[in-house]
Amino acid sequence: MDIKKKRLIFRCVKIAVIVLVSVMMIGMLAPIYFVIIRSFSPAEELFPLKVFPSKLSVSNFADLFVGTGALGIPYSRNLFSSLIITLATVILQIPIICAAAYVLSKVKAPGIRTFNKIIEWTLILSPLTLYAPQYLLMLKIGISDSLFAMILPFIVSPIAVYLVRQYMNLIPDEIVYSARIDGASHFRIVFGIIMPMAKPALCAIAIMTTGFMWSFSGELFVSSGDIKPLGAFMPIFASDDGTVGVLCALCAVIIVPVIILSIVFRKEIAQTASFAGLKETEK
Questions:
Q1: pTM above 0.90?
Q2: Residue 46's domain spans which residues?
Q3: pLDDT on residue 279
Q4: Do 214 and 84 fall within a single domain?
Q5: Which of 8, 82, 125, 282: CA 20 to 30 A from 223?
């Protein structure tokens, strides 16, 4: 095969790949775009679907948070519940995940390898399979139907521990040994030395947790309407054609902050994802 044919084949393959990637990107971004556009569209322009509305309106957001229009119920208190459970979970999760990953990665003690294997095995479990036992546990300790019932079960995440542990495996053990020789405690090493070095992985975990908790419905854990997060009302809005605009406004409130955070911390997310597949180092 001569050079010209090889170049032609290479260009054809390159064009095909670009077209395929473009189609995939459009398929992923189009629903997000139309949700955001519909959230700012007046009620009379929700159907049929338009690429660009004739005018922009915030009536759907007013209907959602102020309680005007057909709903008449302000959901601003539910927005506050979503904000509380998201911030509390992230703030409590980061130091706990960091300490757990440090023990699994840097501490040499009996049973560490077993715990590492258990963490890896739990990755195949869907979070939905754990909701029932988590609910029963919250009910047993007497905190069901409260904001804390939606925070406590998600403070520790197996995937978060796994990702941070993989990142910490790349941090030289000599740093820990030197700190121990200088008299530093494990607490000082974790939060004074290792935690700043693991900032990219912790940022990625914070974004993942924020995305999960910000859209969390919490229906199994709480029944009181006043403390339900915003995600719990998506099925209610989706069941009525008259609240499609409000549903899109709710989706925009859930999607846009996570997208902004993902863009801001895209380097940390990509860096942590690249380390997730690294081979386990022997301990």
A1: no
A2: 3-65
A3: 47
A4: yes
A5: 125
C-alpha 127/C-alpha 159 separation (Å) is 11
Domain closes at, from 21, 38, 65: 65
Using the structure block, give the residue that is written with the tokens 């990625």. Answer: 204
Question: Are residues 59 and 81 both part of a single domain?
Answer: no
Contact 102, 199 (CB under 8 A): no
Picking from 230, 270, 275, 235, the residue whose alpha carbon sits closest to that of residue 250 is 230
Contact between 228 and 78 (Cβ < 8 Å): yes
State pLDDT tens for residues 66-81: 875 566 677 888 889 9
* Residues 55 and 87 placed together within one structural domain of the fold: no
* Number of structural domains the chain divides into: 2
Res 241: pLDDT: 66
| Cα–Cα distance, 52 to 41 (Å, whole number) | 9
Q: Is residue 147 within 8 Å of residue 81, measured between CB atoms?
A: yes
Whole-number Å distance between alpha carbons of 195 and 128? 30
Among residues 26, 42, 65, the one where a domain terminates is 65
Residues 129 and 40 reside in one and the same domain: no
- 243 and 211 share a domain? yes
Structure tokens at 197: 């070095």
Phi/psi at 180 (nearest 5 deg)? -65, -40
